Amino acid sequence: MIYQRSSALFTEAQQYIPGGVNSPVRAFKSVGGTPVFMKSAKGAYLTDADDRTYIDYINSWGPAILGHTHPEVLEAVQKQAEKGFSFGTPTELETEIARFIIENVPNIDQIRMVSSGTEACMSAVRLARGFTGRDKIIKFEGCYHGHSDSFLIKAGSGAATFGNPNSPGVTQGTAKDTLLARFNDFDQVKDLFRNNPEQIAAIIIEPVAGNMGCVLPENNFLQKLRELCDEHKTLLIFDEVMTGFRLAFGGAQERYNVKADLVTYGKVIGGGMPVGAFAGRSEIMDHLAPKGAVYQAGTLSGNPLAMRGGLETLKIIKKDSDFFNRLDKTTEILDFEIAKILNSKNIRHRINRVGSMMSIFFHIGAVSNFDEAQNANHALFNNFFHHMLKNGVYLPPSGYETYFISSAITENEIEKTLEAVRKFEYS
Ligand code: PMP
């Protein structure tokens, strides 16, 4: 059996950890089979407990944009560790990373560090409510903004994967303040504003959705939301936990040239350490404690190891003026070549891609929203996933996720990946 040690480890893990994992999608529940336990990672490759290696297209769900354990990041974190793991006091390093980000990202004056994307989105919404004095928010079906209560309503990612986008435990009282619209459906958003006058604090959106698979904004959707928010004095929150420092250094704000009022970050901003952040104009950020009344805090916020890992990663990206072009080109080649192979086998599919994010849907026609993502052939995706895994290619274990391409993927890895796709038989 090829996953022998993983299988034994999973059996043992289930005794001590709910479902054997610390985050649901890792359990392979939707694709079936044994989750592969990894023990190390370097560059483009993961190594599992059975000593098999895989080309990694998840990259820790986005953070490892440089590939794994980049030598310069590793050295910087090691040196930092010698100075202490955590102080619970302000440090110069926190100002250094804040300044670096603010100088290189459009449209933000201040940034607050937290420890996860969930915290970032939860805090941004609280701030938007505190700033506007309104209660309701709009979110889009299939978007995921972390597991805070207000967001677990028609949520994407693991919640969608397990067919339970609405979580038990979220009270009716909380749910009633989250209004839902279809991604890319501007008329629905307008109707929500018409029916809830002066009540909507914020629209929160993944500017490119990555949690129902990769779904792109269409027909100037983001620009139209910007105008609508201006008209109604509602804040526009871009959840750039996936897109930040990935679609461009300035994320989707830069790539689509649309300004958000608040932006949330995670993943790449920590370079693999547990980090999230939210940022915006001073006029809004000033409402946060200790300056303002909106409370938000964290024991490990701004943790020196995390700040060092993040700052080093961001600096490496920033000093390479061709970084995003190369990453985009790699992804484009993968898209075109995989499509060619699947077409030659008459396997109907749709690849959605922007920058270094992409997903393959086994679907006829466009995938522009959650309904269409759900209509894709997920059973076929599951076969494809297991075929690729057996052939040494690690894709996200769900048809509702995005592949994150790292700069460690070279021609060699592309060729090995395509070779695996060539061997795929429709069944
Ligand atoms: N927002 C988006 C867009 C995400 O993709 C995620 C996680 N995948 C989150 C928020 C939550 O981040 P975390 O898992 O770090 O809490």
From TrEMBL:
Q: Can you state which reaction this protein catalyses? A: (S)-4-amino-5-oxopentanoate = 5-aminolevulinate
In the record, biological process GO terms are: protoporphyrinogen IX biosynthetic process
> A Pfam family name for this chain?
Aminotran_3
Give the N6-(pyridoxal phosphate)lysine positions (modified residues).
K267
Show the SUPFAM superfamilies listed in the entry.
Answer: PLP-dependent transferases
For this protein, the record's Gene3D superfamilies field holds: Aspartate Aminotransferase, domain 1, Type I PLP-dependent aspartate aminotransferase-like (Major domain)
Q: Please report which protein family the annotation says this sequence is part of.
A: Belongs to the class-III pyridoxal-phosphate-dependent aminotransferase family. HemL subfamily.
Q: How does it assemble?
A: Homodimer.
- Name used for this protein in its record: Glutamate-1-semialdehyde 2,1-aminomutase
Native source species: Chryseobacterium lacus
Q: What is the lineage of its organism?
A: Bacteria, Pseudomonadati, Bacteroidota, Flavobacteriia, Flavobacteriales
User: What gene does this protein come from?
Assistant: hemL
